[in-house]
Amino acid sequence: MAEDELTSLADHRRQRYAVHTVALDDGAVPGAASLFDTALTNGLLAIVEAEWPGETANARGFTKPASQLLTLIRDKIGSNRWIVTTLPAMPFPPDDRPTPIEVDLAVLEQAVTDTQSVRHGKAGGATTVPLDVVRALQELDFHDALSVLSDARIDQVELAEATAAAVEYDRVATYIELIGDEELARRADQASDALPFDPKERHDSAGIGLCPMCGHEALVISHVLEYGSEIGTCFACSHTVTEASVSEEEFSAMLRSHGHE
Ligand SMILES: [Zn+2]
C-alpha cells in the first residue's frame, strides 16, 4: 500500500473510533454494545498498526477483532497496565512529575466479553457499557496514533448513522437467536423466492449475495456500489445492509482497486 493511502486507512479508522466513541456518550444509549465494539476495534487497529505495523491482520488476512488485539498488546508489553502516553511535567510546581496515562487491558477485555453476549443476542449480557469502561475507551485517545477526540469533526448525520447501525445489529442478533440456526438455514434456502419469477427479469436482477450478519447466501441485493459492495436485505435474518454499514468494505475495496493493497 502506498504511504498516502496508508494514511487514509489510518484516518478512516481514527474517524470511526471518534464517531463511535462520541455516539457511545456515557454508555447508556441504544446500541451501546455495538457502538463500544466498533469504537474499540478501530481505536486499537489504529494504534497497533502504528506501533507494530502489519500485526493487525490474522494468518488468513482478516483484521483481528478487539479481543485478539488486546491479547496482542498484552503479549507485546508483558502486562495488563498499558501506558498509552506520559504527559510531561508542568513547570510549576517545581516538583511536578510526568503523568503516565494508563489503560487497564483487563477492564477492556472484560467489557468485550460482557458486550459480546448482547451482540450475539444472548440474554444476560450488558446492554449498557459501564462508565469506567467508557473512560478507558476515551483514554486510548491519549495515544499519539489517535488524538482525535478533542477536535474531531463529527456531524449529526455520522452520529445518527452509527447509532442506527448499532441498533440494527443488536436487533438482528436478537432475532437470529430467537429463530435459531436451523430455521435460519431453512429460510436461507428459500432466498431465491424473493427474486422476480420471470426468467429474464430474474436474470437481470442483482441476485443473491452473502449476508455479512448471518453468513448465509441470502442477501437479496437491491444494488451494487461502485467498488462492489452489495446493498440489500437478508431473506433469512432480515438484516438490512445500507451504504453506511458497508462504508468500511467499500473503502478497502477502493484502496485495492487503486492497487494499494
Ligand atoms: Zn442474514
Provide a descriptive summary of the structure in words.
By secondary structure, the chain is an alpha+beta fold. Helices cover 49% and strands 12% of the residues. The chain has eight helices and six strands; from the N terminus they run αααββααααββββα. A four-stranded antiparallel sheet has the order 3-4-5-6. Strands 1-2 form a two-stranded antiparallel sheet. α3 packs antiparallel against α4. The structure holds zinc ion. Zinc ion is lined by residues 211, 213-214, 216, 218, 234, 236-237, 239.
Outline of this structure?
This protein is an alpha+beta fold. The protein contains 8 helices and 6 strands; from the N terminus they run αααββααααββββα. The protein has 2 domains: 3-154; 179-257, no CATH class.
How would you describe this structure in keywords?
single chain; 261 residues; alpha+beta; 2 domains; four-stranded antiparallel β-sheet; two-stranded antiparallel sheet; 8 helices; 49% helix; 12% strand; elongated; binds zinc ion
Biggest pleated-sheet summary: 4 strands, antiparallel
> Structural class of the helix and strand makeup?
alpha+beta
Instruction: Assess the beta-strand content as a share of residues.
Output: 5-15%
Unreliable spans: none
- Calculate Rg over CA atoms: 21 Å
Number of domains: 2
Quantity of strands, as a count: 6
Specify the number of helices: 8
- Coarse shape: elongated
Percentage of residues assigned to helices = 40-55%
Strand order of the largest sheet: 3-4-5-6
**Bound ligands, named by name, code or SMILES:** zinc ion
Distance between the termini: 5 Å
Encode the helix/strand succession as letters: HHHEEHHHHEEEEH
